[in-house]
Amino acid sequence: MSFTHFDAQGNAVMVDVSAKAETAREAVAAGRVTAAPETIALIRDNRVGKGDVLAVARLAGIMAAKRTADLIPLCHPLALTSVAVDLALNEAEHAVEITATCRITGRTGVEMEALTAVSVAALTVYDMCKAVDKGMRIEHVRLVIKTGGKSGPYQER
C-alpha cells in the first residue's frame, strides 16, 4: 500500500490510513521568538498590557494542536491523548523558547500537531507584544523528536 496525497487521477486526497496498525506515537517540536531585551523583560515581569504572555501562548498552542486538521489541508483529525506546550524565557539570547509535545495511540503521527502548537504559541507571543516590538522574529520551528509508526523514530541532529 502506498501512502500518498494523490489519487489515481492526480487529485489531492487525504491518505487512507485504515490499514495501518495503531501504535503509541509522540512528536516534540520546538521554536523560538527572539525579541528586544526590553520586550523579554516586560514578559518576564508580566508587564505586557495584554496580560500573561506565556500563559496565553501556552493555551493557544494547546488549542491549536487540537485544531490542526482545521488548519492544514489533508491532515487527519486526531483524538490527541496529551498535549503539552512549554515556554521559557532565554534572557541571554533575548528569546522565548517554545516546546510542544503531542501524544496519541493511533494510525498516524502527531508531527503536524506539535509543529502547529509551536507555531501558534509563537504567533501568540508576537501578537501580544507587537505593540512594543514589531521587530520580533519567529525562528527555528522544527521537529525535534518523533516516535512510533512505520517510518520509525526520528531525533534532530
State the gist of this model.
This protein is α+β, with helices and mostly antiparallel strands and 157 residues long. It is 29% helix and 29% strand. The protein has one domain (28-149): Alpha-Beta Plaits.
Give, in order, the helices and strands: EHHHEEHEE
Question: What characteristic shape results from the CA principal axes?
Answer: elongated
Distance between the termini: 30 Å
- Main sheet overview: 5 strands, antiparallel
In quaternary terms, these chains amount to: single chain
**CATH architecture designation:** 2-Layer Sandwich
**Low-pLDDT sequence parts:** none
The total domain count is 1
Q: How many extended strands? A: 5
Strand content: 25-35%
Protein name: Cyclic pyranopterin monophosphate synthase
Function: Catalyzes the conversion of (8S)-3',8-cyclo-7,8-dihydroguanosine 5'-triphosphate to cyclic pyranopterin monophosphate (cPMP).
Pfam family, one: MoaC
Domain Molybdopterin cofactor biosynthesis C (MoaC): 14-149
